[in-house]
Structures are given as C-alpha cells and as structure tokens.
Amino acid sequence: MLSVSSLLFLGSNASATETEAAPTKLYGTVSDKDGLPLSNIEITATGPEGFSKTVETDAQGNWEVSVLTKGTFSLTINQEDLPEGQSLTDPTKGTVKANVFSLGIELKLLFPIGPGVAKTSLLERSAQLAVDGLILGLVIGLAALGLNLIFGTTGLTNFAHGEILTLGGLLTYYLSAIVKLPVIVSVPIAVLLGAFISGFLQDRYLWKPLRKRGTGLIAMLVVSIGLAIFLRYFFLFLFGGDTRQLPQYAGQAGLQLGLVSITPKSVVTTIFGIIFIVLATLWLLKTRMGKASRAVSDNPALASASGIDVQKVIRAVWILGAALATYAGVIITVNQGVSFLMGQDMLLLIFAAVTLGGLGTANGALVGSLIIGLFVQLSTLFIPTELKYVGALIVLIIILIVRPQGILGKKERIG
Amino acid sequence: MDFLFVIQQTLSATIGVNTIIFALAAIGLNMHFGYTGLLNFGQAGFLAIGAYSVAVPVVSFGVPLWIAFLIGIFNSVIFALLLGIPTLRLRADYLAIVTIAAAEIVRQIARSATFNEWLGGSDGITGKFGKEFFDLNPFKSGLDTPILRFNANDLWVVIVGWSLVAVITFVMWVMVNSPWGRLMRAIREDEDAVRSLGKNVYLYKMQSLIIGGVIGSIGGFVYALSRQSVQPDNYGTALTFFAYTVLILGGAARVFSPIVGAMIFWFLIVFIEQILRQGVTNDLIPDWLIGVNQVGQIRFMLMGLGLMALMIFRPQGIFGDKKELALDAKA
Question: Chain B closest CA to A72's CA: distance in Å?
Fold first, then answer.
C-alpha cells in the first residue's frame, strides 16, 4: 500500500533534489515492557570512517545521534544498564543497524524490551502454538465459511471479503472506544450492523443489480477488487494508518492453563466463535433456508424451477456470511487491535483455507481453515516467524498439485 | 493555483517512467488475460523477479548488467513454469488464487530479514546497479520546458523505455495475428473445442504464461533501473490490480490498449492528485475535509471506484470490442 503510494509520489516529484550537508538524525525511545520510559541507558553508535559516539537516554527515555555521513551505522544498547526484570526480548537484537542512504532525514530505531526470554521447552512452545493456531484457524474459518457460501450460491470470488472483517473491527472500535459502550455491548451491535451493512446493503445495492444485468463472474471478481481498494483507503481516510487497541481489556493478563497461557478475552471470543460456527452449520443442515441454499449451490436453475426463491436465498447467505466475517474481525480487534489493513492481511489466508478445503464446500472451508491456522503457527517452530505466511501459501500450492479439488472438494468442480 | 505546473507534471507523467512500467506489466497481462483468458493475479511477482534479478547480481556479485538482464528473463521463465505446472489444468479462479499467493510469497521472501544479506530485507536494495546503463546516456542535461520536464536520467529511461514498448508491442502484434495467436484466442473462447482439434491446450497456456511473464519482468527491469533501487513493498498485490485497471481501461485483447490505458491511468492519477494538492495547499479545500496527507488516499479511493465503474459500465474498455472479449469466461 504505502509502497504504491510512495511509487506514485516519486512519479510526480522526480525532480526533487537532495539537500546536502544537513545531518541525519538517528533517534528512538527506550521504554520497558509496560511502555514506561527508561532513563540513563547507554547507547553507542558506530559507523563508517571510525565514527563512534555514546549517548544516554533522558528522563523521557529519548535518545538521538546526529550523523553527517552516509553509510551503515550500528547502534548498541548497553544491556547492563537495563533495570532488574527488564531485558531485550531477543538478546541478539542488542545491536541494530541503520542504513543512512540520504542526509537530512530522521530514522527511528527501536530496541524491543520485555520481560526477557523465558526458557520454554519444545513441548510448551508446541502446545502454545497449537492453541494459537486453532484460534487463528477459527478466525479464518468464520470468514471462510461466509466466503464459501457466497461463492457457492453466486459464483462470486469476493476479493472484498477481507474488508467485511475490517469494518467489523472498526465498528467495534467506534462503539467501544468512542461511544464508550462496554465491549460486551459493542460486539453484538457491531455484528448486527456488519450483517446489515456488509451483508444486506452490499448485496441489495451492489451485487443483486449486477446479477440482474447479467454481469459475468470474472467481471464481478474485478468489481470486488475495485470495491476492496476503495474501502481499504476509505477506512484509512477515516481511521488513519495505525493499529489501535480497544481501551477496555487492553492489558489483560494471561491465564496459565496447563502448558499454555491464554487471555480470558481470547477464551470468551473463541467460545462464541465456535458457537457461531456450530449455529451456522446447523442452519445449513437443518433449516429449510439452509437446505435451499445448498440446492442453489448445486444447481441454481433447478433450484429456481423447483420453487426456491433464489434471490432470497442469496440474500440470506450474504447476511449470514457477513455476520460471521464481521465476528471474525471482532475477534482480531478485541485480542490484537484493529487497523485498516486487517482484512487485507487475512484475505490470502482465507482464500488459501477455502481453496485447500475445496471451493464451494462449507465443511471444506472449516477443515482448510484449521489446517492453515495450525500450519501457520506451528511452522514457526522450524522457520522464522516472518515467513510463516509463506509456508502456508506454499502448502496451498502443493496441495493443489496433489489434489486440485481440495481436501473435501468435488472432482467436477475443477473443470 | 499554478495551472502550468499542474499541466507540466501531468503531461510528464503521462509519457513518463511509471507509464512505461505499467504499460509493460499490462502488455504481459494482455497476453495472459486478454488473449488466452488466464487470470494471472501474480504479475507483481514477475515484476519483482525482474527487478531483483537486475539488482542482486550486479550489487552483490558484480555481474555485468546485460548478464543480469539475461538472468532476469531466465528467472521469470522459471517462475512461470513453477506457477503454470500446478495451476494451468485448473479452473480460472484457482489460477487467480495461486498466482496471487505466489506473488505474495516472492514479496515476503524478498522483504524477510532471513535473506537480508542478499535481498536487503524490507529496505530493499539501493545502489548504483544501473551505472552501466546510465553511462550510455547521451543527454548531459534534462528536458525543461513549460509542458514537459525530465531530468537527464529520466529522459534516457523514457526514450529507451518507449523504444522497448514499441518493439514489444510490434512483436505482440505479429504474434497475435499469427495462427498461433488465433489458437490462443480459441483457447480463451472454448478450451474444449481446441482440445478436440488435437491441440495441447496446456502447452499453449504455458507459452502464454511465460511470454506474458517475461514482458512483465522487463517492466521490472525498467522499474529497478529508473529508481536505482528495489523495494519489496512496491511489488504488492496493488501493483497487479492497477496493471489490470490499465489493461481494462484500454480494453483487453487489443494490442495498443495497454499503452493507451497506462497513459490515461497516469494522466488521471497525477492530474487529480495535483489538482487536489493545489486545492489543499491554497486553502480551496478545507482542512477538516482533506488534509495534505490524505490526498493520496482520496486518489486510491477514486481508483477503486473507477475500476468498479469501468467493469460495470464498460467492461470492454475504451478500445475493446465487446464481441471479441466477453469477460464472462465460464468460471
């Protein structure tokens, strides 16, 4: 995102010239795990041409070093200055590098400080990651179920599905942090609003007219991309670019349950997530409308001929799918905070889960989601955390080679 | 309002470096999507591979630039094969999901700290890797007229870039008007019919994917050289989506449409941005409505809306023929 805007920016300012001789400021704030500033911490900067300078943080924990040459600078924090109980979250990150490519700019550098790395056994780490993975799988599953139902009944590959999550998160944030309702009240309102706006209104005023015009499936796919871009920047415009936490339950301490630590808010949101998935599955399997929706997925023309109101079924599916995805956004927001990129970050995982399970099959989406969630988290035992999504996407591609219809998919769908 | 400045910036952008990059990316997509019906959402991955293949060998291994170009083309062929082998037998939307995933894999690996040493992490690679190219620059000074303005390096990139676009467009024109090109269009319209004539559809789709991908990676060369830097986050999914916008704007399955589409796209983008920027800085647009930093966001919102409107009301684009391209592939 930022990337493309910087590209566009460069495009129109290609003639800007560099100002020479102004110093580049390297700066940062050292604070402990609770965000309180740490003063009198020694930081040493070394750089090209024998540059070396030592500074201490002030009472606000701030420090800065000005440099006049380009090149790579190393900044080392004196770990012995850190107070009792505080240490770098990663002891190897005591030195950070700063690449100064141009002068007259400011570079912010951070030393991540926390309670220190507790030595945990492989078993404990695996258990913790498995629990995290199941929760992530649930979030993906909530979103994927809706995506899959909509795909099944209308054929739409909805690239704007992630934005339903973001809207859900933003509504929760608005109700809880700005209107100051308790989270427990905000969440149901947000889910209802999400179902109404992202489900009913979206289908009624965008997709239904398009279906009536006979717009092709690929054309609709591109429309959903346009919608996703529009909404994403609309959210950025309204909300700004940072990740924000709900004020309530922000610093909740984790409960130690056997091998794993989990916050109460995470437990509660997860339990409700499971309830919603079970209810949605029961709806699909037991109710008339649910059965009708499966009939429409199988063969819309036949369903319509046998007296099913296809438009009504599609509307129901949109509302249900949007409610589930909104709740997925709520879970992320309550536990990790909300940003305008939240939905986009999840979208590829949702697609991966749906494809893995089999496009258009409801149970497949859930199975795929759990596999993706677990795989993403557990793979960090072996690969760097920053590459965890790469692992999930590679698994997706491998599964498609071996079993193109997905794990629970029907063979005829691969066409 | 400084209208002359707005006009100068807008016109320079219309024929500028970004237009060339997007035109090349869209020519590749035109091969994939316009002529063969392949829904490749990983074009950004091809550009990234092109860009990194130029920067990494030159900066890290001191390879001559022209060999780096060959490496880039080789790598993009390999990437196309990797993408194509699992997906080209599948339905269109599977290809879309896998290609978008593959492009993200490329970007995330490029920006990861794990490969920082070679790929530069999230900061990417900056260096004078285009030196050999700019040494050939015959222009000692840039162009500075009231309506067009380029510095010397940009002028050289623009001239070489447009020559490349012209050559590639000519080759495309020859290809799509050959029997081979007709076969491609037949695959787009009805794969089964082509298969029943005894043609190996899979092989032809693979050829299309490779050719379009290589053209995309040439776009990546231009991207890297013109900036003398490669930044991983420039090659996100948005790049692919805007390349599609360019293609659809001009009209898919027309040889010249990527060029026209890219020019219109950048004309609109820079024009709207400059007008908004002038409006905000001269207090014609109140601050509470749009801040200076929000101009870019408004522009992206308009781009999203524009893509939707285009697809709904004129899916064949400006020059496209509705009969030639029914964008309603049987998904």
Answer: 13
Residue position matching structure tokens 């002030």: A58
Instruction: Give the fold, CATH level 3, of A129-252+259-414.
Output: ABC transporter involved in vitamin B12 uptake, BtuC (1.10.3470)
Total residues belonging to chain A: 415
Task: Classify A105 as helix, strand or coil.
Answer: coil
pLDDT of amino acid B2: 80
Residues of chain B contacting A415 with CB distance shorter than 8 Å: 90-91, 330
Residues 6+ away with beta carbon under 8 Å from B233: A1, A2, A3, B107, B111, B122
CA–CA distance, A26 with A101 (Å, rounded to integer): 12
pLDDT tens string B246-292:
998 888 888 999 999 999 999 999 998 888 888 888 878 887 777 77
- A305 forms beta bridges with none
Burial of A214 (0-12, 13-18, 19+ CB in 10 A): exposed
Contact check, Cβ <8 Å, B238/A1:
yes
Does an H or E element contain B177, and which?
none
Confidence (pLDDT) at A411: 58
Q: Measured between CA atoms, how close is A330 to chain B, in angstroms? A: 24
Selecting from A234, A389, A413 the residue whose C-beta is nearest the C-beta of B108 gives A389
Two tokens, residue A312: 């009504």
The ranges assigned to domains in chain B are: 15-236
Q: Are B114 and B232 in contact (CB under 8 A)?
A: no
Question: What is the rounded CA–CA span in Å between residue A337 and residue B183?
Answer: 52
The pLDDT score that the predictor gives to residue A88 is 73
* Residue A163, token pair as written in the block: 């934005």
The Cα B311–Cα B317 span in angstroms is: 8
Token pair listed for B44: 């950004």
CA-based nearest residue to B29, from B17, B41, B20, B21: B41
Are A390 and A345 in contact by the 8 Å Cβ rule? The answer is no
Write out pLDDT tens, residues A138-185. 999 999 998 988 988 888 889 999 999 999 999 999 999 999 899 899
What pLDDT sits at residue A223?
93
Give A150's Cβ-side CA count (13 Å radius): 33
Tell me which H or E stretch contains A255: strand A255-257
Q: CB count, 10 Å around CB of A377?
A: 23
Which H or E element spans position A408?
Answer: none
Measured CA to CA, the distance from residue B192 to residue B234 in angstroms comes to 38
Close Cβ partners of A80 (under 8 Å, ≥ 6 residues apart): none
> Taking CB atoms and an 8 Å limit, are A230 and B294 in contact across chains?
no
C-alpha to C-alpha distance for B77 and B89, rounded to whole angstroms: 18
Percentage of chain A modeled with pLDDT above 70: 88
A12/B108 Cβ within 8 A: no
8-state DSSP, B293: G
Q: Enumerate the residues of chain B whose CB falls inside 8 A of the CB of residue A223.
A: 307-308, 311-312
Select the residue from B85, B90, B229 to test the A interface by mutation, using most A Cβ atoms within 10 A: B90
Q: Which of B68, B73, B44 is CA-nearest to residue B131?
A: B68
pLDDT given for residue A191 in this prediction: 95
When mean pLDDT is compared across B64-78, B184-198, B273-287, B312-326, the lowest value belongs to B312-326
Residue A84 buriedness (CB in 10 A; 0-12 / 13-18 / 19+)? exposed
Give pLDDT tens digits for B298-308. 888 998 998 89
Where in chain A do CATH 1.10.3470 domains reside? 129-252+259-414
**Residue contact B108–A414, C-beta within 8 A:** no
Classify the C-alpha dihedral A175-A181-A187-A188 as positive or negative. negative
Contact between residue A148 and residue A359 where contact means Cβ atoms under 8 Å apart: yes
Q: Pick from B102, B231, B305: which is nearest to A226 by CB?
A: B305
| Smallest Cα distance from A258 to chain B, Å | 33
